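Hi support team,

I'm opening this ticket because the web form for multi-chain structure prediction keeps timing out on my end. I have pasted the exact lines I submitted so you can reproduce it. The total is 1034 residues across two entries, so I didn't expect it to be a heavy job. Is there a limit I'm missing, or should I split the entries? Thanks in advance, R.K.
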Amino acid sequence: MQNFLPIAMAALVVITLLAWFNGRTKAVASAGVHPSSLHSLPGYSGTYLAIWSVLPAFILLALFGLFGDLLLNLQMRQSLPANIRALPVEQVELFMRNARALAFGGTASETSATLLDTAKTYASLSRTSNFAVIGAVILLTIGGFLFARGRIGKNFRARNHVEAVIFGVLVVCSGIAILTTLGIVLSLLTESLRFFSEINALDFLFGLKWSPQTAMRADQVGQSGSFGAVPLFAGTFLITFIAMVVAAPVGLYSAIYLSEYAKPATRRIVKPILEILAGVPTVVYGFFALLTIGPFIRQAAEAVGLSAQTQSALSAGLVMGIMIIPFVSSLSDDVINAVPQALRDGSYAMGATQAETVRNVVFPAALPGIMGALLLAISRAIGETMIVVMAAGQSANLTANPLEPVTTVTVQIVTLLTGDQEFDSAKTLSAFALGLVLFIITLVLNIISLRVVRKYRERYD
Amino acid sequence: MTEPAKSLSTRALIAASLPRRYRAEQRFRLYGRAAILLAISALALLLFSVGSQGFSTFSIYHFNLPLQLDARLIDPKNTADPKVIAKGRYRKLIQKALSDAFPKVHSRSDKRALYALSTGLNSVSLRNQVVNNPDLIGSEIRYTAPLSDDLDLYLKGKITPRKFYKGTGALKASATNKNTLELTGKPGAFDTLIQHIRQKRLVRAERLEDRAEKLLERLKEARKEVAEVQQVEVNRLKILAADIRQKAKNNTIHLDKNDPSVLINFNQGFIKAAELSDHQITGLALLAPTRLEPSQNWRSLILDSPERARRVTDQQAAWAETLLARGHLKRSFNSIFFTHADSREPELAGIAGAMVGSILTLMATMLAAVPIGILAAIYLEEFAPRNRLTDFIEVNINNLAAVPSIIFGLLGLAVFLNIFHMPRSAPIVGGLVLALMTLPVIIIASRAAIKAVPPSIREAALGIGASKTQTVFDHVLPLAAPGILTGTIIGLARALGETAPLLMIGMVAFIADIPKSLTSPATAMPVQIYLWASSSERSWESRTAAAIIILLLLMIVLNLTAVFLRHKFERRW
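Hello R.K., no limit was hit. The queue was backed up. Here is the completed structure from your submission:
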């Protein structure tokens, strides 16, 4: 596989170039002494020929690369001996994995006659399919080349054909955004459904105890684990709340000052500086929270006689608030700037001071947009991962005390999915259920806020 | 008050309220300024705390020690076979070089402490050096491996301040028994030392009294049984504090395990004080002085943190100080940090592996996201009919831009790893996941750039007979390119700093090699930062901060490039 890829790439480039020159030459030749009598520029004929020689074969290869293994697996599963197929799912999986390892050079955890047999058919099946695909690719290349070359001529509308292909590529590319969303929804849904087939959805959404540790052996105590996600939602909410307590006033006042009071020069300097806060990677904020803010909060709390730990909801929330300031400020800034000047002028004419104008006229006029900005900021805070992973702690703690460590939805997704574990356990699947909840919440917040912000902008335009 | 107010005219009422309203105006402005100041100072604090913690990592203490490449320990039978040479006892060689520097170290535990100055993993680089150049066997080379991270921190003053006090007057030494020395100076020679210890003791006593105080306060609210136990604790603390205060007054001070360490550097030896008065010190010789004759040339070293509270013993500190004085330790640029991949030993860990991983990941991201993003933007802006489907795509893209990044990680895990069986921890998978995440950013930026190209350009191209496709690709796209490039770079810079999705697809593993291809296991810079930040040892802190400095510098470079491109090529129509 290692040296196959460069060879294939090189072959691709060579075939493309050859086809392009060949098509171009043929088009020019077909025009005879009057090159201008061609329908399309000769280069288009070349491109046409190159597309037909390479694209079909490339699509086949890509499909094979993506789904070949899957098909092979399915095929193998069909041909497994009956006694193996009767085994429980995990053991069949294990058997298949061992067979694969034996067939393609890996380390198998056991060997047996049936296993070796299966591995042998596996390897031969894989070899046959590889050869079949290579043969098909060569056939497609030659066939495509000959077909397209036959069509090139003086009156052939090469440009239209090429442009149709380009158009198709454009459509496919914009479809990838939809495919991504679809992929997210489907993968989250299927895994979550598998999770909910084991754990009651109501227990998950309203249960008060979160301890996803499931036992390895059936006879261990507490083997089922409990998946009540309320402590996680509470932790997420607490940290988001603290973050918004910091970010909302600071962001709003900055936006108001920058758009209503600041000189253009100040604005030009301060705005990008605030924007830097949004550009700092979140893992840096996590480090900052863990090593600077966390210890500071602990010492401060101890100085006034409270007990606190380095990892706490407060330190994560404070730092997240700092991170979110620019989201609030730049969105609110846009909204405030969209408020028409006539409203302000009217207020000044009535004798209001600038602060009164902002508070009583501009702010209410901009309120829906500001709410949208705040909602977007909240959705950011809920989905933020690294700060909470590093600074909020891991223990599922149902508390409203900001000095205690809490855990959040995102933290649990990370803890559940980092490290090696089987993919089918309820513990791993619960991460997808949490992901689904997270996705739905943020999606709803985003849709509402985007709609509000957009609608509001249009009204004053 | 209310009666005459009624009779006032409106004008007078307003005039009366003006000062209040102006004050409110001033306050409002102040809030705005305070908010901005707060945000900027938070940024400054963040950058300062990272910078101050990380900067020290860029230089490090290296050995500069003569090391005898003894043939008996490498290739005793003189076979010159690379396999034999590779199996030489290089760790022993390093240990011998250290023993040669301090020949009087005999006991096993002392030797172990001495060998801890250089991590065992250094033998690997020594072995490679010899295997690559077998002619060195038998000769003496300079051993230049990094000093152990704890001692490096100690020498940088990060474990406890290294305060040297110049001694006044001559000092005379006499041995009381085998390892104990008595140092006598003129009266008052050790006054500063005694003052220092006394002050530290008073601080300690105060701290104990504080704690007793706080316990007493809490005691009032506690239940009776608890209160009794706590009362005992309060009494104990008070007695301890009183004892410390009493002892601090003594003329002769016996240093206990909670006191700072006092080391006297005299005639190239180090004596650890156990008992000191204003002119006399008795203590253990950590390193024997070369001579006992009186000498003017002495100084004292106070290490404030007590020995049991730190990872470097007084003995090790004495060795490190001596090596430094002899020129066998040198502080220089930390090239290891920039050329090595991750390691279990902080002094051998570097950022190079993560950096290459990040570059590979970003390459995959770029290859996938940039063409797709630009083509999608072209379609949506130039070709797409205004209908339900296009609207849906648009809403979709806007929503994707706001989906939490960890969700993309879940997508990558479920689709790329579990359905398509792509390799775990590989930059190609990370790159694809980040590409899906960056795609909306690139599409939105590219659309804005394409939209900014005036219709006259398109009309002119169409007017001279270009097809729609030719118009877009030959005329609109080149003019929109700077804007597209700017948006793309900003999107990629964001992808460079992204951590959470990479955790999901297994790029968190400990990887001690620099990745070589898109499919070999790798980590990325932000993930490396996360991994190091989760390690508990002190010396990882400064390395994490240093890695952050590098990451931030890279991001600044990327963003400045974007700003530069925008300024250089931006056209206003």
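A quick check on our side: The two ends of chain B are 65 Å apart (CA to CA). Let us know if the file doesn't open in your viewer.
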